[in-house]
Records
---
Amino acid sequence: MIFASAPFVLLSVMLPLVSVLLALRADWQQIYRYCLPVLPLPALLMGLLAEPDWWLELPGLMIGGLWGVDDLRRAFLLLTATLWLIGGVFAIGYLKDHKLRRFCVFWALTLAGNLGLVIALDVASFYSFFALMTFAGYGLVVHEGTDEANRAGRVYLAMAVVGEMAILSGLLMAAQLAGSGLLADLPAAIADADRRWLIMLLLLAGFGVKAGLPLLHFWLPLAHPVAPTPASAVLSGAMIKAGLLGWLVTLPFGEVSLPDWGNGLVLLGAVGSLGGAALGLCQQRPKAVLAYSSISQMGLITLMVGAALANAEAAAPLFAVMALYVLHHGLAKGSLFLSTGMALPASRGGQWLMWLLIALPGLSLAGLPFTSGAASKLAMKELLKPDRFDFAMAAYLSVLMSAGAVATMLLVWRFLWVQRAGASTGSNPSFLWLGWGLATAASVVLFWLLPWHADVPQKAWLSAMVQDAWSLFWPILVATLLAAVALRLVKQR
Amino acid sequence: MSLSVLMPVFALMTSLLASVVLFALPEKGYRLRTTINLVAAVVKIALVAVMIWGIARGREYEAAFTMLPGVEFVLRADALSMLFAGLSALLWLLTTIYAVGYLEDSPNRSRFFGFFSLCVASTMGIALAGNLFTFFLFYEMLTLSTYPLVVHRGTRKALRAGRNYIIYTLTGGAVLLLAIAWLHGLVGDLRFQEGGHFAGVDPSLQAPLTIIFVLLMTGLGVKAALVPLHGWLPQAMVAPAPVSALLHAVAVVKAGAFGIIRVVFEVYGLEAAEAMGLLAGLALVAAFTIIYGSTRALYQIDLKRRLAFSTISQVSYIVLGLCLFGPLGVMGGLVHLVHQGIMKITLFFCAGNYAETLGVHRIDELDGAGKRMPGTSVAFTLGAFGMIGAPPLAGFITKWTMGAGALEVGMDWVVAVLVVSSLLNAAYFLPILHRLWFAEQQQAWPHERRWGRLETSPWLLWPPLVTAVLLVLAGILANVPFSPLSWAELIVLREVAL
């Protein structure tokens, strides 16, 4: 082993957990604040440097532990660690001294859960870290202590607990059939199960709560916006992906083709991506618009999940694309959320530059050529060609993707509009600049340097993008025209 | 006499002797009393540890003599005894430390600690009893030694609760005695034995054996607080906090649950009980108790009362586990004997700390207590999450093992019971945690005492912190030798004979 992964995998989870000791004394809280960006560093290094497919056995842990990283998890790990690091930098400047200690503790615990669930290969560790993230995340949601935050927290917690129970039942049944405590053995066992539908339903719904699946999403637009801005960024950028990862590592992808489930999920994905956008357009606050945009984007990913369930052979290549999409959306959404906490500079030129930089990750979500979104959308389009599938909803996939792109762009305009209405001018603490700058840089530039999944189709590469520029551009154009018309109508009234 | 005979006798005598000495001590001998208490507790832990080590390596410990013709007094240490004895010895030490701090200035401490030790001696006897007769002796001794603890404060409320307690438990004891006597008349003196005695029993005996089983479960179910025999438990929480802690975690409810385990495994035998159709009824009662206790807990505004109803629910996990009639289910039930003990004692210690330090008894007075008492509140939080069954804590290991056991034998409805119970647990614990950590303090604490820089007396603070660490370790290290789960596995392999 070139890179000593074993100590790193332990360190990446233990560092945030042990950091809680910094809360023992009140006068250490300033130190803790500055430690926040350090906490995800070992995990980030591991994501960048570790070679794929290795693991660490921890036989004494619960019912037998196994931690490690494969190609899929590596993308999730990179996103999670990067976003939490950037969020940590932003938090240094953002947080007030009031209740700082408590925030740091819940931040660190949520982070530990989020990182741990990515590297857990056994059921018990995975579920433990998932639960840690869920429960500690409550502390981030209700941190502000307002009535609104408490209400959002209650809904969050109630739905999360029900979700946890669904996950537990599903995992129990699957693990019992598999006769194994390893996640890798579950898909095959579920594929052969007599009550496959029940297990799949439990897992889909349980993880769907986190992933913002339509009808299980109610908590999301309440909770994501009320949290402090850096927490919103990690909630909507990284933690929402934990639900997706849960699906990807447990459901019987590649084992059997399940066209009915594919149909159902594509339908849910369509409702999520278009319905989420429609509701998002009605929102008055920038963070609420972004939260609905997350639901909408998860809906687009759900299309891929459905397709992968419908056709066993398509699963492996689709996983690579989903990993790419996860990375793209997480970084872009993180950057957008952080920008809601920024004040504009006084000079006109500075304002223009800032608006451009705020808009760029949004345009990337809509698939502007030569952005991370373009790469993800092209790769997705390449794999979701209807001739590869023969389930009923497959014919609508490309239409849905285009409609999704238009809807996304409309939401971005809506976001910029409400953001402008509430924007203030003034100076920002330097750590806000640094955090937001890092986030934008990560979304626009760094994305291209990260080690992606090895199997992403060549279509997604920068060099191939010129030919497809028009197919990427027209949804943006349509949405912009629609937005302009809407603006005219509003102004006339 | 060899050591293998003496060890169980010593283990029993440590607390018995301590109790006699403590009764004799003058009220003011604070240092001496504390020293005797602690030394006895540590010695007992050492004795039990030696026996656990020996039993793991296949040694046997037994002391027996004939009391009357046909009636033997048997003390025997097997793997199952050690599950209960280990829990009892460990928590006795911690509760003693806690009680020393809790009763600092209150009257009648000699009496209190005397009965306290006697109560622990009874649990040790119950753990080591080798037949039903011996078991019954200590079971009744437990009733009599806990009564003075329940009424210790001497208030009208305490006396009423005590009267209720003694009526319930003595009636239960009488039913138990009747059943044991009937069984004795039917088949003679039965030692506890692996696999039980009634495999392939004469069909003509089936009817009386079924009735006796119901009687035994009724007698034992009073202490184990099976619904509808649970009425004494919520009232008994008027007792001082260390007593409640011990009652709910080790002594009384566990004595009932442990008795049920002995009867099912080693008198009837799991297979025979299943074949006679006795387990199905017991499973239903246990499942109903689980849901009922949790539902009632939801409506309590007094913290200790809520915890009391939670106990009713949680102890039935143990009984339900046995009824699953498969190695994993039984393991889940057995391990919960220890897990529930550690978790519940943590919660009661913490409830006592809030009451002693802040004068807080009601849940709605707890707003902001996390800031004032962070150590206690961290312990409470861990205990509560353990009860909910959140991983990786002890409660999760129970739930996972029992759930897997239920699915293994096709009793899927048990998973639904576990899920509903967890949801209810979440519904009554999570709001408390919100109050502790996220609500702002509304008014001055009702009756606050200060201890300088510490949040409360160190005697009160350390025991819950230690048990909180234990409940985390019992979960995270469940697969390590000598963890509660590993020990339960050993019991199933050796003694349950499935």
---
Amino acid sequence: MRGTLSDRTGAALLMAPLLLFLILAYAWPFLGVVKWSFTLPTPGLGQYGALATDPLVQSVFVRTLRIALIVTLVSVTAAYAITVVWVRGSPAQRVLAEFCILVPFWISVLTRAFGWVALLSNRGLINTWLQSVGFISEPLTLVRNEFGVIVGMTHFLIPFAVFPLASAMRSLDERVLLAARGLGSSRMRTFWTVFVPMTRSGIIGSAIIVFVFSLGFFVTPAILGGGRSVMIAELIYLRIFQSPDWGLGAAISVVLVLFVGALMALLFRYVKPKQLV
Amino acid sequence: MPTYRPGPVSLILAVLVALFLLLPLLAVIPVSLTPSRMLAMPSGELSLRHYRSLYEDPRWIDAILLSIRIGVVSSAISTVLALCFSLGVWMFQPRFTAALVGFVLLPMVVPPVVSAITLYFLLTSISGASSFFGYDTWLGVAMAHSVMTVPFATVLILVSLSQLDRRIDLAARGLGASVWERATRIIMPNIKFGIVTAALLSFVLSWEEIGVTLFITSVNAITLPRLMWMGLRDNIDPAIAALSVILIIITVLVLAVRSVVTRRAAP
């Protein structure tokens, strides 16, 4: 029979499977993790107290914030440089820039981290070359430290930083730029006083996305940090699998979610979701 | 009409960034050709032994087959769920749509490590009741991957629905088409490109998923990224370089084909 299905039932039938799936497989277990943070090993707020006092946990938090800030600054700046050419370059330049942005974007995080190991490790490309030229006698330590982590994360996050910037640069009115140039403003001055301020929403969006991503980053720091510059995500992993302390791992996760939630709320106060893609 | 083009300073900076982006992808090529059993630059002779080990070593074959199986199953689950949900949103525009879509997108926004510990909790809880569906089983991994990929599939399908002209659906409705007919014969044929893209993206995301997989597998469900991870953490196996080169070549080819296809579709 036609027309018997009311809008409300139709919507409910179509939307229910996914909502149920995510409630059962995501929302409910997340509440379970929250419960762990309050009950393991003993009921109470002990794990959150440990977060506030444990010097190891605190040093990991400080390191994560420091690395995330540096990575955000470098990635957004680098992304800006290549996005200008991707959006405003000649057709050939655009194709090349797009290739350089999209190929790394689609390659798995493991392959990219491995590429940096191949470049930076003691027997890697850079050290082998520097030694064969006679520039250095002992290999430089470029990986298994914070430097390696920052390089690898920046490389991973530049393509993500590009998209909000590109969207901001595409939507700005080119005539304003031409007017500035026509009125005698130099290239540099037009760039800094007209172009950059007009892409402000893209810069903010891109910075917040990169920063949020860096806070919860796991794979790259674990491989390029070599266990020596542990970030929050790796600390959670270690607390779950190496020194079983599920309560502390869960408590760190809860704090991370709250922090990221606050940052996302901030993001959507400044930028409309549509400007991000 | 004159256009505003980037100047020489912009171009130089962009070239530097481009080199930085491509450098690690190029670096794996010489490493993959080393005759040594450890990570090293080839000195003198080159060797294809690490490429050979990819198809001679059963560990790599098993991991590749497992990753394909998990990718296909999880992509099917997430595409079907995302399609139904998006059709519901588009056809009926229920109240609280924004909140419901926001909820569906959570696994995409929440830091992956938090999703990982959440899914670890889920699968270890299930494990008690069932031995073939839970922690360290391929079905468990497929379900966890569906959770992680379904937001991306939903976004893609919702975007292609938003470009669809509502009037064709109104016409079908006015002519007496049922909800089922409208969905399958009017709407879905018009967004098939979006549906296929959603399925492909879900597969790719599952194929390379490592953050969550690390938390929910140990010795049985070894996907390809899991095996690469093990090879990267202990002593670095140059077979990973060979595999990386192959994956990079596939990516470049797919992107090249895609850009040719889209250029033909939209001249």
